[in-house]
Amino acid sequence: MRGETVSNTVKRKLLRISELDEKSQTYTMSAYLIAQLGKNFAEGRNNIITGAEMLELAWSVIEEMQYMGGGMVVFLEANNDDKLLKYYNDNRFSQFDTRQTTSKDQESHELVQLLRLL
What we know:
Layout: H1 8-15, E1 18-21, E2 26-29, E3 32-33, H2 51-69, E4 73-79, H3 82-90, E5 94-100, E6 110-117
Parallel strand pairs: 3-4
Antiparallel strand pairs: 1-2, 4-6, 5-6
């Protein structure tokens, strides 16, 4: 995780649970990972559950895991899409870096890395 894109308040909190490599300005830490959240917009199925409800379900599982095993950071990657990033920002995730995907089968594209403190 790149250090220069994170606020000083978040940096202080992260330093309690991570290691900062001063040379590269990157943090190393354990974090919960939210994989992909997605919806199929098939006829009549797009109203069964909202994106907010899916994120809330994922968050409730993470909170339960945090209670049982500790930890305080949740991490996810998302496509660089303004509407999607606004959604995660509205749900208290903060952008801290980006990365390029690499795959033999697909063309490389940029993913935005986001975190949220528990």
